[in-house]
Structure formats: C-alpha cells, structure tokens
Amino acid sequence: MTALVTFGETMLRLSPPHGERLETTRELEARAGGAESNVAVGAARLGVDAAWFSKLPDSPLGRRIVSELRSHGVRTGVSWADPETTRLGTYYLEHGGEPRGTSVIYDRADAAITTVTPAELPTGVFETAERFHTTGITPALSESTAETTRALLRAAGEAGMSRSFDLNYRSKLWSPEAAREAYEELFGEIDLLFAPYRDARTVLDREGKAIEVAHGLAAEFDFETVVVTRGEKGAIALREGEVHRQPVFEAETVDAIGTGDAFVAGFLAKRLRGGDVADALEWAAATAALKRTVGGDLAVVTPEEVEAVVDGGGGIDR
C-alpha cells in the first residue's frame, strides 16, 4: 500500500565534470532532479512505499525520468503528453569552488507539467495512502500547476491523508509577494509545514528567532507541525506546543544539491514508520548529511546508514 504520494516537476539535470565550465566542457552528466521526486526517492530508500505524480512528454527523455525513479523503488503516476507540443524541462548545474561558486541555469519553458490537470493523475490511490507532499516550486510553474496543487491538497484532505508542504522558494520563478499570496492560499490545506528560515523571512515576512517564527505560523494558520530549518544551525520543530531542536551532522560535501529534500524525506520516512517528532528530526538531519556525500540530486542512502549517523557512526559525528 502506498504510504507517501508526492507531486511536482522533475527535470533532467545536466552537469559538466567538477571544475569545468559549461561553455568549454565536452561532456555532460545526466541525472533526474526535482524537489518532490527527490523526496519520494529518499523516502523509498528509507523503507517507505512512495509514489510520485507528474506529467511528462512521451519521449525518450520522459521515459528516462520514470526509469530512474523506479530504479529506486518509487511508484510513478504519470500523465503522458504529446512530445510534439511539450518537452521535458532541463537544468544545467556548473559546480565551482569559491570565489566563483556553483551556478544553475534553468531551461523549463513549455514543460509538460505546466499543462497538468487533476483529472490526469491517478488520485484513486488517495483512498488508502497516508501522506501527500508537495512544495512551493510547483504552483509557481503555471496556473495549471497552481490549480492542480490546490485540488490535490484538498482531495488528499478529504481522503483523510496528512498533507505536508515545503516552502522551497525559488526567486527565479516568482517574486516574494506573488509567492506569499499563493502559499497562504494553500496553508488551510496543510498539516505539516517545512519552512527554511530564510524563506520565512523573505517570503512570509516573519521576524524573530526560528522558534518565534514557528509559533507564529502555527498560531496563525493552525498547522499541526512546523519545522524550521536553519542551515548550519540545525532545525527546530513545533508540535502541539512542544519544541524539538536538532543540530546538523557534520559531512564532507560532494554535492549539496538536494540536501533540503533529503531532510524532508528523512523526516517523513521516520514519521510514517511510527517515529515521534524528535526521532524524525534526527533522521532528517542524518539523511541530509548523508546526501551531501552523494553526487546528484537524489539521497541514495539506506536506513542502516542513517541509523549509523544517528548513533555517531559512519565517520560523521554530531
């Protein structure tokens, strides 16, 4: 039985070898990458029966995305679009050290998902699934994705599913003002909010410490749980008035892309497997640390590795 359903866009990530520039490289590495599918893969790797919903072009590139996600145990509920009129979004990731840093170039115009509708997706699984998850990236892609996000959150709630949402603000997609309006329209359909502290300040105009932000959001929007992530300062979670704090686990960074999604995957996986909020925060932090040691967007990890990090093993200490 499917426990977790996620919904969103997955793109093809194209990267030159570390240290090379896009304008001079002669080779590109291709991998799947998308916030919600990253969460589905991370959760599946940690023992959760997970599914990912989306819309893809019926083309070799679209089928490649499905094959890669399925290879990690993720079920896929995909609406297939005409490849003559739609395409698969791509993004180019150029790794670079300081002072240049890493840069991302998106090429996602006319992606198939921008035309998705609720009727195209296999929502019958909601009747037996436990949790629905999506992010603030998806409603930014088009009016159709915004309407479908709202409809799926509502349908999941009517089916008795818990619903989680990661703000995941992207400045290249919309302004803070537009994002805030869209997010707050969805908040009434959300039980668990993941809010990076920087996004809460930039988009939701929240001030104060992370715990004050969590209390304010929970009180105003009646969230059951609010998780505020603070980068190197760790994370806090508020549930039913009780506050839980979690530091980061140290990690040698090979690839930081997807760290936030790995955190969410670890948290949801532990909760779906019966863990409490404190345990889920530990799993979230450990999964995020492990992801940083893995190339690509996906948290290719195991429950045993996560437990080893939590217990202080695996070469990673608190």
From TrEMBL:
Q: Name one GO molecular function term.
A: kinase activity
Keyword set, alphabetical order: Kinase, Transferase
InterPro entries, from UniProt?
Answer: Carb_kinase_PfkB-like, KDG_KDGal_kin_Halo, PfkB_dom, Ribokinase-like
Q: Which SUPFAM superfamilies match?
A: Ribokinase-like
Q: Which residues form a coiled coil?
A: none
| PANTHER family membership | 2-DEHYDRO-3-DEOXYGLUCONOKINASE_2-DEHYDRO-3-DEOXYGALACTONOKINASE, SUGAR KINASE
Matching entries from Pfam families are given as:
PfkB
Family to which this protein belongs: Belongs to the carbohydrate kinase PfkB family.
Tell me where in this chain the Carbohydrate kinase PfkB domain is found.
1-297
Q: What's the protein here called?
A: 2-keto-3-deoxygluconate kinase
Is the keyword Phosphoprotein assigned to this protein? no
- Domain of life where this protein originates: Archaea
Q: What organism is this sequence from?
A: Halorubrum vacuolatum
